[in-house]
Amino acid sequence: MAVVEHSKIDKQTYYIKLNAFNDGSATIFDKAIEAMKQAKTSKLILDLRNNPGGSINELVQMISHFVASKQAVLVMENNQ
């Protein structure tokens, strides 16, 4: 299973599944976002189901596509 899977669903919708936030996944995610732009879709389904997490640095790089620079990002940890 790839860290990032992506495809165009229909004329308007692009699908990206993030299976983990491993080292290098932000680079792969960037390529998926670029493919989405090339596909000229206007809607995105971002699938995080069954994602166990990973590198916070990779996650922050990915979030930069959706959150303006210098905005706070909430990080929650489960201590159970």
Give structural notes.
This protein is of the alpha+beta class and 80 residues long. The chain has one domain (4-63). The protein contains two helices and three strands, in the order E-E-H-E-H. The protein has helices at residues 25-39, 56-63, and strands spanning 4-8, 13-18, 43-47. The chain has a three-stranded mixed β-sheet with strand order 1-2-3, covered by helices on one side. Helix 1 packs parallel to helix 2 (56-63). The longest helix has 15 residues, at 25-39. The model has no long low-confidence stretch (mean pLDDT 88).
Main sheet makeup: 3 strands, mixed
Average pLDDT metric: 88
CA distance, first residue to last residue: 28 Å
Sheet with most strands: strand arrangement: 1-2-3
Helical stretch tally: 2
Assess the beta-strand content as a share of residues. Answer: 15-25%
Parts with pLDDT < 50 across at least 5 consecutive residues? none
The dominant shape is globular
* Count of folded domains: 1
The value of Rg in angstroms is: 13 Å
> What series of H and E elements makes up the topology?
EEHEH
Number of strands: 3
